[in-house]
Design brief:
Elements (H helix, E strand, L loop, with lengths): L11 H12 L9 H30 L3 E5 L9 H8 L2 H10 L4 H5 L11 H15 L4 E6 L7 E5 L2 E5 L12 E2 L5 E5 L2 E6 L5 E6 L2 E13 L6 E11 L5 H5 L3 H12 L16 H25 L6 H4 E6 L6 H12 L4 H11 E4 L10 E3 H7 L1 H21 L4 H7 L2 E2 L5 E3 H7 L3 E4 L2 H11 L1 H6 L4 E3 L6 H7 L2 H11 L20 H26 L8 E6 L8 H18 L7 E6 L7 H19 L7 E6 L4 H7 L5 E4 L11 H7 L3 E4 L5 H8 L5 E2 L4 H7 L5 H7 L1 H10 L13 H8 L7 H19 L2 H13 L6 H13 L6
Parallel strand pairs: 1-2, 1-11, 2-10, 11-12, 12-16, 16-17, 18-19, 18-21, 19-20, 21-22, 22-23
Antiparallel strand pairs: 3-4, 5-9, 6-9, 7-8, 9-10, 13-15, 14-15
Helix pairs in contact: 1-2, 3-19, 6-33, 9-11, 11-12, 11-14, 13-14, 21-32, 22-23, 22-29, 22-31
Bound molecules: ligand 26V.
The site of ligand 26V has 23 residues, from α6.
Enzyme class: transferase
GO molecular function: glycogen phosphorylase activity; pyridoxal phosphate binding
Family: Belongs to the glycogen phosphorylase family.
């Protein structure tokens, strides 16, 4: 490992003092904690800028290949702690502040989470940026600087309430506005068919309105402080101050209205993963991001080149799901319409540059856009998409001359009552690489989602199993464990997580196991305090902390977990069967505001919590707590405090999961189905160190169609008792029949997510787990092996694979 380059901290204190005095205009004595957080951050930012400038000069001098990660979401979480750790100065800064009478931890607690993502997809993007910089690779992010991130969740009477998350998108100390590098984005308007001087077809996109993309940069420093890349987020502005033409016509208010409507583009992050038809603003957002990013990427490329011959050798672009799939059309438009390249040449460049990652197989999350909306918003792009499709279908007729059905299936345009653009098809046709995010998922992409494309281009398809950054998810989130590991095996694990393997042999050392378990206990105490503060529930750190933290979604089966809790309640209450160990069931996660059943499930968790926690007998063995407003900063406290990690999606539905990796690395044992990366976690830790239950993908596929939950119900008095309770007043009191829709979905509507099919096997696995937990030594060894054997889930490994196999990206040390 290259040594850490520590920045010079001699002027640090003065920078803080100057900030408070000359930027905020206050004497130090009046500064609030938030003022001081901003002061410290701006002093840190100064250090980041030096690294950033040096990095950019190094890249320029070497004319390196750069990778641009385009994503509608980047869920960075708070940045101060991470930046300090990556630069190796957390302890020095702590000491400087202490000297000034300040407490770093108090200041860090003032930092709001930039919640610019929904969940796994956005957090993965943030982990990737950390790994790219830590590996000293030229990898950059492009996203949107939403004024409102994901809503804030509070709980009232057991119900989820949403509040807007107005984060300091204009004043965050980490954001550097780059007004000098604006991007101009034409949108709306119409196509006028004209001819060029040679009589060729020369379409003119006219009457568009212009939106301005203003870049805001967040520096991303890698571990060791050698490299700082950047995440560039665009805010939308109206062109000029007002629409001058309307203004001159004397309609002042209409001019202001226009300005407001342009600025709506970056107003808010869409909070759901399912596409509701006809959300025009979402398409405009996707296009806005893509147009800004492509312009910026080309501008940077042209600083050092004067034609496009080298483009795909110097530029790689990764599409984070189909949300930025319009990059295919926008890059073509730019190369052909703006820079005058021939179509075929432009097409080669485009496909050699672009690569696409699929993150979901759920049909409701697969993007399709009605032609009418695409034509209205980006008429020229629709023309280009038609032309791409025409040529694509032409090659298909050569490959599959007698198979018109296949052409229909593969076309970028879906025929039907309402014609639509299939964004995944556009992304696949326009890319040289298509990957899934875990082995099983990549397999299902090839065999289930787009088998026709796999048949045509088998070499395009590959797997890149997700990973998470050990800097945030171990070094920063779990300082106790990080310290113990470093004391025992050195600190190389921070940049090479596979070295955690060396912990395996320490499993035979009782003193080490004792220390390892003590750290878990301290983390549980810290988590218990959080639960008390946010959910007002007392929990026992000596009980099993069993945690289900992720978005609330039917396929993630929080309902199955609740069924198991209710079952446990009745076993104690009615049958006097006491569990082997007391357990605290902890939930955390947001439901999309329009997702009725997911919100009802949150209400059910609270209903069950009320009954269980108040029951004098049962509450000695079972407690239930829901921690509101799950976000990165809370995850950093929740995950290190887990004994058990619930990863219980219906097999085939969770593309990968990344929370599963964070829990395992922090020494939680997984209770999971054979889905997503759980399968690879099982492979890594071994069957004795994980609880796998339920039907696997093949079994689920075989059951579809013939599955009859009624049959299972009829044969299981335990399930009947649980479901009848869900449908009774027990958990909802006076709110009659409140939970009927949850009962109904399972009992009368086919139990699409197969909760009942996996129930018994889940209960059995949970019983085994409780039995193992009370064997303190065995349990400690299991959890240690989870930490020791999950080094491959570092996002450094994932990024090395992308860099070598997809991007052709090299280290620039
Ligand atoms: C779709 C849409 C459709 C339009 C409205 C906004 C929106 C937002 C998100 C999505 C798709 C989200 C797909 C996703 O988050 N997949 C997750 O990706 C993780 C990282 O690869 C993976 O670990 C999770 O298993 C997978 O669910």
């Amino acid at each position: 490992m290259d040594s850490i380059i520590k920045p010079d901290l001699s002027g640090f204190e003065n920078t803080i003092r100057d900030y408070v005095r000359y930027v905020l205009g206050k004497p130090m004595t009046d500064a609030t904690s938030t003022d001081l957080f901003n002061g410290v951050s701006s002093a840190v930012r100064k250090l980041l800028m030096d690294i950033r400038i040096e990095t950019e000069q190094r890249y320029d001098r070497r004319d390196v290949k750069r990778m641009h990660y385009i994503s509608m979401e980047f869920l960075t979480g708070p940045l101060l702690a991470n930046n300090l750790l990556n630069m190796g100065i957390q302890e020095d800064v702590r000491a400087i502040l202490k000297n000034m009478g300040l407490d770093l931890d108090i200041l860090m607690a003032c930092e709001p989470d930039p919640s610019l993502g929904n969940g796994g997809l956005g957090r993965l993007a943030a982990c990737f940026l950390d790994s790219l910089a830590s590996l000293d690779m030229p990898g950059f992010g492009y996203g949107i600087n939403y004024d409102y991130g994901l809503f804030k969740q509070s709980i009232m009477g057991g119900y989820q309430r949403e509040k807007p998350d107005y984060w300091p998108s204009r004043s965050s100390p980490w954001l550097i506005a780059r007004s000098g590098e604006k991007c101009m984005v034409p949108v709306y308007g119409r196509i006028v068919d004209t001819e060029d001087i040679e009589g060729g077809y020369n379409p003119m996109w006219s009457e568009w309105k212009l939106v301005v993309g203003r870049p805001h940069d967040i520096p991303v420093v890698g571990y060791g402080g050698h490299t700082a890349n950047r995440l560039r987020l665009f805010s939308a502005w109206a062109s000029e101050d007002f629409d001058i033409q309307i203004f001159n016509e004397g309609d002042y208010f209409r001019a202001v209205e226009r300005k407001i409507s342009s600025e709506n583009i970056s107003k808010i992050l869409y909070p759901s993963d399912s596409q509701e038809a006809g959300r025009e603003l979402r398409l405009v957002q996707e296009y806005f991001l893509v147009a800004c990013a492509v312009q910026d990427i080309i501008r940077i490329y042209l600083k050092q080149h004067d034609d496009f011959n080298q483009f795909s050798k110097k530029v790689a672009i990764q599409l984070n799901d189909t949300h930025p799939a319009l990059t295919v059309a926008e890059l073509m438009r730019s190369l052909v319409d703006v820079h005058g390249l021939e179509w075929d040449n432009a097409w080669d460049i485009t496909t050699q540059t672009l690569a696409y990652t699929n993150h979901t197989l759920l049909p409701e999350a697969l993007e399709k856009w009605p032609l009418a909306i695409v034509e209205k918003v980006i008429p020229r792009h629709l023309q280009i998409i038609y032309e791409i499709n025409r040529r694509f279908l032409e090659t298909l007729t050569v490959n599959y001359p007698d198979d018109p059905q296949r052409l229909h299936r593969m076309s970028i345009i879906e025929e039907g009552d309402e014609k639509q653009v299939r964004m995944a098809h556009l992304a696949i046709v326009g890319s040289h690489s298509v990957n899934g995010v875990a082995k099983i998922h990549s397999h299902l992409v090839k065999t289930g989602l787009v088998p026709d494309f796999y048949d045509l281009w088998p070499e395009k398809f590959n797997n890149k199993t997700n990973g998470v950054t050990p800097r945030r998810w171990l070094l920063s989130a779990n300082p106790g464990l990080a310290r113990l590991i470093t004391e025992s095996i050195g600190d190389k694990w921070i940049v090479d997580l596979d070295t955690l393997k060396a912990l395996e042999s320490l499993g035979r050392d009782p003193a080490f196991l004792e220390k390892f378990s003590m750290i878990k206990r301290e983390n549980k105490v810290r988590l218990a305090r959080l639960i008390k503060k946010t959910a007002y529930i007392d929990v026992d750190p000596d009980s099993i902390f069993d945690i289900h933290a992720k978005r609330i979604h039917e396929y993630k089966r929080q309902f199955l977990n609740v069924m198991h809790i209710i079952h446990g309640y009745f076993m104690i209450q009615e049958e006097g069967v006491i569990p082997t160990a007391p357990r605290t069931y902890i939930f955390s996660g947001k439901a999309a505001p329009g997702y009725f059943l997911a919100k009802l499930l949150i209400r059910l968790i609270h209903g069950v919590a009320d009954v269980v926690n108040k029951d004098p007998l049962v509450s000695q063995w079972i407690k239930v707590a829901f921690i509101p407003d799950y976000k990165v900063s809370l995850a950093e406290i929740i995950i290190p405090g887990a004994d058990v990690s619930e990863q219980i999606s219906t097999a085939g539905m969770e593309a990968s999961g990344t929370g599963n990796m964070k829990f395992a690395i922090n020494g939680a044992v997984t209770m999971g189905t054979m889905d997503g990366a759980n399968i690879e976690i099982a492979e890594a830790v071994g069957p004795d160190n994980i609880y796998i239950f339920g039907h696997d993908v093949e079994e689920i596929q075989a059951m579809r169609g013939a599955y009859d939950p009624g049959k299972i119900l009829a044969q299981s008095p335990h399930i009947q008792r649980v479901l009848n309770a869900v449908n009774s007043p027990l958990f909802c009191g006076w709110e009659n029949d409140l939970f009927f829709p949850l009962f109904d979905a399972v009992v009368n509507h086919g139990d699409y997510y197969m909760n009942l099919a996996d129930f018994q096997s889940y209960v059995d696995a949970q019983v085994r787990l409780s039995g193992d937990y009370v064997d303190k030594k065995k349990w400690a060894q299991m959890t240690l092996l989870n930490t020791a054997r999950t080094g491959i889930f570092s996002s450094d490994r994932t990024i090395r694979e992308y860099a070598g196999e997809v991007w052709g990206l090299e280290r620039q040390i």
